[in-house]
Design brief:
This protein is an alpha/beta fold and 340 residues long. The chain folds into 2 domains: 151 residues, Glycogen Phosphorylase B (Rossmann fold); 175 residues, 3-Layer(aba) Sandwich (Rossmann fold), CATH 3.40.50. It is 42% helix and 14% strand. It has 14 helices and 12 strands. Helix 7 crosses helix 12. About 1% of the residues have low confidence.
Length: 340
């Protein structure tokens, strides 16, 4: 079995999956090879269609070239697999990707869904559809204690820490987080958002960046909020998750969220929205859910999670179906089925 996985993303979902699949088959991950390679692959597996266009919406000419390349691969005998990560990209110009997405998912030989919700909403009879759950991440170091993590970040030992990890993408997400936090009836509450300013560009406003940095440094010292500016390096992720009591997922429109599976890697209690594939994972572990349109619902879910004495106890049995080894097996089974 020879597979081309068309992603160069520095994303542990990809790197961990490729590493394990490489133990049982020949696999190459490359965007360039999708466009230029003359090699014969049994399977061409696309993760995010937009990555083939450097994450930008394709022009009509580029989309036509993509369609031609699609047919070229099929003409060589390759089977096309595509994973449904999103309904559309998480971008302000999401609709400009609709033609790309519509063609990709309708024309592929098989579509992988990361949950039942996606399967039930998008599966049709034009292609093979399989559910292969997003795996719990395995490559993040987890060597520091709760006390060590809090000491490094300057968080009080007795604080009840709510972590929002990753970029805050929209005003609605920001509003949800801060409104709920401000009204939480919890003593010693503390909000930790390491990537809060990640979506902002300060290249033309260096003084503004300095002022904001100082403001939020003093806020982290003298208040109950820690707001960060940048992407967290792989080996430092452990400090933020081990410092937290609960992880809040503020995604209001996503099909799925990698932060859910990152939280499970650190055995953290998760509070998340009732939408997309996220709901079924929360239900599987008995985590509190909320209605993103109902502020009281968010507050109630957070208070419930923070009131549980042992938030770090996550069912290991429930994690089995989200294991990397299970995901690899299901990928191999699908590749085998469509190439027979």
């Amino acid at each position: 079995m020879k597979v081309l996985l068309t992603s160069n993303a520095n994303n542990p979902y990809i790197t961990e999956l490729v590493k394990e699949l490489s133990k049982v088959m020949e696999i190459k991950n490359s965007v360039t090879d999708f466009w230029e390679s003359d090699e014969i692959f049994d399977v061409v597996h696309i993760q995010w269609p937009e990555e083939l266009f450097k994450w930008l919406a394709p022009s009509d000419e580029q989309l036509n070239h993509f369609k031609v390349r699609f047919e070229t691969w099929k003409g060589r005998g390759s089977k096309i697999v595509i994973t449904r990560h999103n309904e559309l990209p998480n971008k302000e110009d999401a609709l400009s990707f609709k033609s790309l997405y519509d063609f990709s998912y309708a024309t592929a030989d098989a579509v992988i869904h990361l949950g039942r919700y996606s399967f039930e909403r998008f599966a049709d009879n034009r292609t093979i559809n399989e559910v292969i759950p997003h795996h719990v991440y395995t490559s993040y170091p987890n060597l520091v204690s709760r006390s060590e993590a809090r000491s490094k970040l300057g968080i009080p030992e007795k604080a009840k820490v709510i972590l929002c990890f990753g970029m805050i993408r929209t005003k609605d997400e920001k509003k949800l987080i801060f409104k709920a936090f401000s009204k939480l009836n919890i003593t010693n509450k503390y909000l930790l958002i390491p990537g809060f300013f990640e979506r902002y560009s300060f290249k033309k406003l260096p003084l503004k960046k300095t002022v904001i940095r100082l403001k939020h440094y003093f806020k982290s010292v003298f208040s109950n909020q820690w707001l960060g500016f940048k992407f967290v390096p792989h080996n430092e992720v452990q400090f933020f998750f081990n410092a937290a009591d609960v992880v809040l997922i503020p995604r209001l429109e996503n099909l799925t969220s990698g932060v859910v599976y990152l939280s499970l890697a650190f055995n953290k209690y998760v509070v998340g929205p009732e939408n997309g594939n996220i709901t079924e994972v929360l239900d599987k572990f008995g985590f509190p859910k909320f209605n993103g349109a109902d502020e009281l619902s968010v507050i109630t879910a957070l208070e419930k999670a923070l009131s549980i004495e042992e938030c770090g106890k996550v069912s290991e049995a429930a994690k089995e179906q989200f294991s990397l080894s299970h995901s690899v097996k299901l990928h191999v089974d699908l590749y085998t089925t469509i190439t027979q």
